[in-house]
Specification:
heterodimer, A: alpha+beta, OB fold (Dihydrolipoamide Acetyltransferase, E2P), Ribosomal Protein S8, Chain: A, domain 1, 5 helices, 15 strands, flat, B: alpha+beta, Ribosomal Protein S5, domain 2, 5-stranded mixed sheet, 5-stranded antiparallel sheet, globular
Chain lengths: 221, 248
């Protein structure tokens, strides 16, 4: 895989059709918008090394209720923009007065971005079986720029991890991750996730993580 | 002091031993602050400046918020101990002006439309001043913005040219700035689009062109250093992973 560190304004290609994420076109040439790693495939994408999470429709995220209004929970989703969870997006039908009984201020939820409009009003939903209030386990935070690496191509990394450490893991695109499992398994999962975060920009990561897990398990038994 | 009292050149070199078209030594460090989203420390000769970027984040006070784009706030501040005679702390006429022109030097390259209703805060603290703090501040701020992962069309680099003893010089230091005939700071993209230009003192049209050319060349050299500093930070990331591997 061809990768290169780029800074904003670097010329990436003279073929405008190859413009991908994190790039822009000027005079039919492709330039970088970000400081990050340029990934040369069909399209050239620049993956940032830092930055804030900007919600997009369809993203799974983990949030914390920070306020309750007449018909909405206002949810902190680790982003410059707050999420709004409308009462009708709760899986069961509930009354406006009873909102705080179901989700209190401080409750953590696994939720999904339903829609984002042009003024960045973020609508959330809980209408999915895997979504809901977090009752057990723990939530950790990593940089959201590392999340694609944690999930891997087509979910390869995360499904391998789930199987290997025998934990329930929910990855929020906003960099928050919920882990639920036995104490030892959770520890191993945490260790592995931090390793992935640290090495997110290197090649052949999945193979190295598999080896790492094997070693760790060998040391334990 | 009378101009004739000091000589700016000795054997064709300047007071600090530089040629007329030579920059002062520059050192750039990226990501020096843990709490900021992006940060940079720069030394340009005797100038020591630190820049921190926060955001995009929610706008407070709310009435400043723009519905279609992010706003950029830039605060230039001099520490009271940054100059020879203690500077009264807090914003003054000069720092308001520098904040404004510096913000306008950076704003054209920042993709503010990507982050409606938010703010990008840039704080520039001058720890030690030696003429040309605005250019040092802009250079640091541009690197800090990139470090914060904020999308920009290009980097911005900034450099000044001046006139002392009827000679155009690059990157004037304090003595040349205080007793010189002109000072012309510019900021620009590596492509050569100028986003800031100020002048005090007087230059003839010919001298002006010569000074702009010289400052632009200086800015291009500084751009290479900014770039190298950012690339080097990534190199450090690589190195730290090697250490991790060694530990395993």
């Amino acid at each position: 895989m061809d990768r290169k560190v780029v800074v904003p304004g670097d010329l990436l290609s003279e073929d405008a059709k190859r413009s991908g994420d994190g790039t822009y076109i000027k005079d039919k040439c492709v330039y970088s918008l970000l400081y990050g790693l340029a990934n040369y495939r069909d399209k050239i994408n620049v993956i940032p090394l830092a930055g804030k999470y900007i919600p997009a429709p369809g993203d799974n995220v983990i949030g914390t209720v920070k306020d309750i209004t007449f018909s909405n929970w206002i949810v902190d989703i680790n982003s410059p923009y707050d999420g709004l969870l409308h009462i009708s997006e709760f899986p069961t039908r509930i009354d406006s007065e009873e909102m705080s009984k179901h989700l209190r201020i401080g409750s953590s939820i696994m939720t999904k971005v339903k829609d984002v409009d042009s003024t960045m009003k973020v609508e959330l939903t809980l209408n999915d079986r895997k979504l809901g209030k977090i009752m057990t386990g723990q939530v950790i935070e990593i940089s959201h720029t590392r999340v694609p690496r944690l999930i891997g191509k087509g979910g390869s990394m995360i499904s391998m991890l789930k199987k290997e450490v025998n934990c329930n893991i929910f990855v929020g695109q906003n960099g928050r991750i919920w882990i639920n499992g036995g104490a030892e398994d959770t520890d191993l999962a945490l260790k592995t996730i931090h390793l992935i975060e640290k090495e997110a920009h290197t090649n052949g990561l999945t193979d190295r993580i598999v080896a790492f897990l094997k070693d760790e398990k060998g040391a334990r038994s | 002091m009378d101009k004739s009292d000091i000589s700016f050149f000795k054997d064709g070199l300047r007071l600090d031993g530089r040629r007329a078209d030579q920059l002062r030594p520059i050192r750039i460090e990226v990501g020096v602050l843990a709490r900021a989203d992006g940060s940079c420390y720069i030394e340009m000769g005797g100038n020591k400046v630190i820049a921190a970027v926060y955001g995009p984040r929610e706008v407070h006070p709310r009435h400043l918020q723009e519905v279609t784009r992010a706003i950029v706030r830039y605060r230039y501040n001099m520490a009271s101990f940054s100059v020879e005679e203690r500077k009264r702390p807090g914003p003054d006429r000069r720092s308001y002006e520098l904040s404004k022109v510096s913000r306008e030097a950076l704003e054209p390259v920042i993709m503010t439309s990507y982050f409606p209703r938010s703010v990008i805060d840039v704080f520039v603290e001058v720890l030690q001043a030696d003429a040309g703090t605005r250019t040092a501040g802009i250079n640091a701020a541009a690197v800090a913005l990139a470090d914060a992962g904020i999308p920009m069309k290009s980097m911005i680099s900034s450099c000044a040219a001046g006139k002392v003893a009827d000679t155009i010089v690059l990157d004037p230091m304090k003595e040349e700035d205080n007793f010189g005939q002109a000072d012309l700071p510019i900021a620009m993209t590596p492509g050569g689009d100028i986003t800031l230009m100020q002048m005090d003192g007087g230059l003839s049209p010919d001298e002006f062109h010569q000074a702009v050319e010289m400052a632009m060349k200086g800015a291009r050299d500084i751009y290479e250093m900014q770039r190298a500093a950012l690339v080097e930070k990534y190199g450090k990331l690589e190195a730290s992973t090697i250490e991790v591997k060694a530990c395993e």
